Amino acid sequence: MVPISYYLILAAALFCLGMFGVLIRRNALVVFMCVELMLNAANLTFLAFAKQNGHLTGHVSAFFVIAVAAAEASIGLAIVIAVFRSRGTVSIEEIRTMKH
Amino acid sequence: MDLKQFLLQLRLDPSALWLIIALPLLGAFLCGVFGRMLGRANVYLVACAAVAGSFLLSLSAFLSVSPLEAAQAVTMENAFSSGTIRYAFGYDFGTWFSAGTFRVNFGLMVDHLSGTLLLVITGVGFLIHLYSTSYMSHDDGYWRYFAYLNLFVAAMLTLVLADNLVLLFVGWEGVGMASYLLIGFWYSDTAKAWAGRKAFVTNRIGDFAFLIATFLIVLLVSAFNTQATAANFSMVGGNPEAAQVRYREGLQMKGPVAFQGLETMANALHVTPEKAQGGVNLQTPISEGPLEGRTFGGVLTVALLLFLLGAAGKSAQFPLYVWLPDAMAGPTPVSALIHAATMVTAGVYLFSRMSYLLVLSPTAMVTVAIIGTITSLLAALIAFAQDDIKKVLAYSTVSQLGIMFMGVGMGIFWAAVLHLVTHAFFKACLFLGAGSVMHGNADETDIKKLGGVRHEMKQTWFTFLVATLAITGIVPLSGFFSKDAIYHGIHHNHLHGYEWASSVIYYMGLLIAASTAFYMSRVYLLTFEGKRSPEAKIPHAHESDWRMTTPLWVLAILSVVALFQALPLMPGRGGVMQPVMENFLGPVFSSAERIAARGGEVKLDHSVPSIIDYLKAWLVALAGGAAAGFMYLKFFPSRAGQPAPAFARSVRRFTQNKFYVDEAYEFLVIRPVKNVSAILYKLVDTLLIDTVAVRGTAWVTARLGSALRYVQTGDAQAYAAVMALALLGGAVYALILVMK
């Protein structure tokens, strides 16, 4: 059986990948994909612990995260499309109007 | 069925006593809330009917406590002792409020003292309501006026009917409020609104003293209850132990401020340690509580002096009399009812009600008498030079109230109450006469600009003359007898330790009587006699209508008839004939008499004035009147056109400006208070609260906000970076914890 630390290191690596993607990429669509990556890293952690402890709670949480991710993706994509229609771009650098 | 039979059958059930108060209260409500809707005539009807109904109920209550046949005398159970209270009845409507052992009941009581006052309040009150229907016939605020007037009557009746200090205080405050509302009745005139405010504030000072005095009495009663022994109650009657138990039950049932309880306590308090046999006496120190270490007598004296300050506020005595002359800003019938006949006598009523406490403290008594003398003399002197007819009458009221206080202070309670009654008649008559004169002369109040009104206002003239003679003290009018009864009592009563007071105050009293005769004759002569002044507003005066003259006639007749109350017609102790009023009020003041006789602190005399005394008083009054007649009929007219000597003018100016008492108060009290308030306002309100606390908070928030605003760049990735850094920080912190 694979030790739990491997799962956790994998999850941490995935999370960091996602996070750096969110911080660096300019395309809003790619930023969303990176967010999905972070969420799945969290899922992996949940499942790893659930397997180790023999609890169902972790599985349940993972399902919740998937449901929330689906909702988030649908709303986020709708926003991206709306922004594209009004501004003709999906670059985050171009949409900085909500400021002081 | 003849009249006597009918009167004998008139009985008011004690449980219906509340109706006497409720009727005018209902009238006030109807007039005040629905007055505009009801219209003028209906408001008149409601207001007058309410007071008339109250008068009939009062009459029936009065007849119940003073039956025409002795066999039918009512008695009332005393909650505090096994004895009964004769010639009184009352009803306890239950607890009003209670906290711990303290409780106040809503109890009403009628005895001969409150019965007399009931008749005066509702009787004179009704006449003045009737008068007002004509006097206020051109005023648009009629509904407000009658609502206030009814409210006043209700409050005054509460004051008189209350069987405990706290309920009395409700009436006390109620009359103060009604008085404030009526003085400032024409509130659009700033000076009149200010006069109302002055009256209210001055009264509040007195009311504060009244409250403190009540608290002291509560503490005193509880200390007495803990420390008193059976020896104390040997004088209350019956078995001492049983009497003490009964007293404690009374305290539980009716609370410490009930008058019956105070009376029992006064009866049980020994004056000197020699006679006390271990019981509590006036020199016993209080053993516990906030008053620990102070003697019973000392606390009682302080409480009575505070009551004196309270009474000085309400009854316009020195040093709080200054509001009454300004109160003439209200409509004239109001001055007649509130500021002459009823409300201002509340202080005299209070001390008569608590006569049994007063006689325990000669110091308090002599202070009351001295304050009365100072007030009376001061006001009489100021009245010399006033030209406003209402102002003269106002100062005369202050002066007459001072005479009543002299009487109360020297222990001649019945005469003070008699003077209260006769004064209510003739002073109300004078004020209403003055109102009638104003009404017929286009609201002219300056007596220098009147004159010769006699021929055009015959009814007003005659009634005013009768009332003037009554207040001046001319035989055979009531004022002569009541005032002389007071003076005789002052001269013959003695306060232990203050023997000098009797003669000093008596001779001051004669001086006051002469002054009264002088200024009242002056007002009468300048207004009614002589030729009409060329400065008059209208060339001819007109007589007022029947609604104004009827009350004048009734009051004039009453101020003559009331003299019978001072005549020695009733058989008293030892077969000596007593004045009617003294005999009538005997049951009310019996405790005071008993305590005075037992303790030797106060010697109360019961002799009847001799012919010589009467003659002396009469000569004094005549001299004052004759001096005024000489000055204003002969001396001044003959010197018309010549300037008066300089000293006379300066004296006159000094007197006309009321001895600058208002200015002195302004300088000594009002200005310092205002300055301290201004400093506090600048320091605490403006600086600390407004600037630092309120505006300071807003300023800090605004500055902080405008500085932090620049963090909001609109770059989502920058926000995410901050979150990532925070996460990193959290992770590092967790690592450090784990490593440890």
UniProtKB/TrEMBL annotation, chain A:
<feature type="transmembrane region" description="Helical">
    <location>
        <begin position="29"/>
        <end position="50"/>
    </location>
</feature>
<dbReference type="GO" id="GO:0005886">
    <property type="term" value="C:plasma membrane"/>
</dbReference>
<keyword id="KW-0813">Transport</keyword>
<dbReference type="InterPro" id="IPR039428">
    <property type="entry name" value="NUOK/Mnh_C1-like"/>
</dbReference>
<keyword id="KW-0874">Quinone</keyword>
<keyword id="KW-1133">Transmembrane helix</keyword>
<comment type="function">
    <text>NDH-1 shuttles electrons from NADH, via FMN and iron-sulfur (Fe-S) centers, to quinones in the respiratory chain. The immediate electron acceptor for the enzyme in this species is believed to be ubiquinone. Couples the redox reaction to proton translocation (for every two electrons transferred, four hydrogen ions are translocated across the cytoplasmic membrane), and thus conserves the redox energy in a proton gradient.</text>
</comment>
<protein>
    <recommendedName>
        <fullName>NADH-quinone oxidoreductase subunit K</fullName>
        <ecNumber>7.1.1.-</ecNumber>
    </recommendedName>
</protein>
<keyword id="KW-0520">NAD</keyword>
<keyword id="KW-0812">Transmembrane</keyword>
<comment type="similarity">
    <text>Belongs to the complex I subunit 4L family.</text>
</comment>
<comment type="subunit">
    <text>NDH-1 is composed of 14 different subunits. Subunits NuoA, H, J, K, L, M, N constitute the membrane sector of the complex.</text>
</comment>
<dbReference type="Pfam" id="PF00420">
    <property type="entry name" value="Oxidored_q2"/>
</dbReference>
<keyword id="KW-1278">Translocase</keyword>
<keyword id="KW-0830">Ubiquinone</keyword>
<feature type="transmembrane region" description="Helical">
    <location>
        <begin position="6"/>
        <end position="24"/>
    </location>
</feature>
<keyword id="KW-1003">Cell membrane</keyword>
<dbReference type="GO" id="GO:0050136">
    <property type="term" value="F:NADH dehydrogenase (quinone) (non-electrogenic) activity"/>
</dbReference>
<dbReference type="GO" id="GO:0042773">
    <property type="term" value="P:ATP synthesis coupled electron transport"/>
</dbReference>
<dbReference type="GO" id="GO:0048038">
    <property type="term" value="F:quinone binding"/>
</dbReference>
<dbReference type="GO" id="GO:0030964">
    <property type="term" value="C:NADH dehydrogenase complex"/>
</dbReference>
<feature type="transmembrane region" description="Helical">
    <location>
        <begin position="62"/>
        <end position="84"/>
    </location>
</feature>
TrEMBL record, chain B:
<dbReference type="InterPro" id="IPR001516">
    <property type="entry name" value="Proton_antipo_N"/>
</dbReference>
<dbReference type="GO" id="GO:0016020">
    <property type="term" value="C:membrane"/>
</dbReference>
<feature type="transmembrane region" description="Helical">
    <location>
        <begin position="208"/>
        <end position="225"/>
    </location>
</feature>
<dbReference type="InterPro" id="IPR003945">
    <property type="entry name" value="NU5C-like"/>
</dbReference>
<keyword id="KW-0472">Membrane</keyword>
<feature type="transmembrane region" description="Helical">
    <location>
        <begin position="364"/>
        <end position="385"/>
    </location>
</feature>
<feature type="domain" description="NADH:quinone oxidoreductase/Mrp antiporter transmembrane">
    <location>
        <begin position="300"/>
        <end position="491"/>
    </location>
</feature>
<feature type="transmembrane region" description="Helical">
    <location>
        <begin position="143"/>
        <end position="162"/>
    </location>
</feature>
<keyword id="KW-1133">Transmembrane helix</keyword>
<feature type="transmembrane region" description="Helical">
    <location>
        <begin position="546"/>
        <end position="567"/>
    </location>
</feature>
<feature type="transmembrane region" description="Helical">
    <location>
        <begin position="112"/>
        <end position="131"/>
    </location>
</feature>
<dbReference type="GO" id="GO:0015990">
    <property type="term" value="P:electron transport coupled proton transport"/>
</dbReference>
<feature type="transmembrane region" description="Helical">
    <location>
        <begin position="295"/>
        <end position="313"/>
    </location>
</feature>
<dbReference type="GO" id="GO:0003954">
    <property type="term" value="F:NADH dehydrogenase activity"/>
</dbReference>
<feature type="transmembrane region" description="Helical">
    <location>
        <begin position="334"/>
        <end position="352"/>
    </location>
</feature>
<dbReference type="Pfam" id="PF00361">
    <property type="entry name" value="Proton_antipo_M"/>
</dbReference>
<feature type="transmembrane region" description="Helical">
    <location>
        <begin position="614"/>
        <end position="633"/>
    </location>
</feature>
<feature type="transmembrane region" description="Helical">
    <location>
        <begin position="392"/>
        <end position="414"/>
    </location>
</feature>
<feature type="domain" description="NADH:quinone oxidoreductase/Mrp antiporter transmembrane">
    <location>
        <begin position="162"/>
        <end position="225"/>
    </location>
</feature>
<feature type="transmembrane region" description="Helical">
    <location>
        <begin position="420"/>
        <end position="440"/>
    </location>
</feature>
<dbReference type="GO" id="GO:0008137">
    <property type="term" value="F:NADH dehydrogenase (ubiquinone) activity"/>
</dbReference>
<feature type="transmembrane region" description="Helical">
    <location>
        <begin position="42"/>
        <end position="63"/>
    </location>
</feature>
